Amino acid sequence: MSEASGELGPGVRVAVRAGLETLVGTVISRYENPSGARLVIELDDRGDGGDSTISVPAEDASPVTNESEVPPPGSWVGEAALVRALTDSIDQSDSSWVEEIIPSAMVGSTRYDLLVSGPNGATVVVEVKLAQHPVSVDLADRIWHQLMTYRTHDPSAKWLAVSNQHFSPAAMKFLNGHGVTTWTWRNNRDNEGFVRALKKMLTETA
User: Fold this and answer.
1) How is domain 13-69 classified at the CATH fold level?
2) Less packed terminus of the chain by CB within 10 Å, N or C?
């Protein structure tokens, strides 16, 4: 992101890229220091108890003229980068329940985003899909067909679909009806829930 022409000042709505997410808020003050202009931004309530104000270089902020133009969380993160983030979240947990993690796994002639196996022999196949809008039934169908190809290698494998967007009710009904667990990853705060869901899938008995 870069500062648009004209100074961003108090009262201006802005978006700031922070790590793997976009934060949106209102500029409450602007000041200069030796390294350049900085903005103090009051963030919109994210409902997670995080900081309500941040200070960032002015060049890191972009004006928001239309709230619908704010990129969906994680939308600029390539699927490979998201797979790495998910892999890291497993590595950083108490992963005694994990036997092997294989990102971007080639099995036969098909590449799978992430394979995770447990000491009990169970395997979870993770399919990652980034989207600009809630996951539709059409996309859910493509996810299912990708996952089901693994059945020829391991009929007992479990499936987990991860997207940066919510799954529409119809898409969730379709996937859940085919035995696919769904998870929405919007930023790093969702890592804990992802790990919890994955652990449950690997350790629960059929």
Assistant:
1) SH3 type barrels. (2.30.30)
2) C
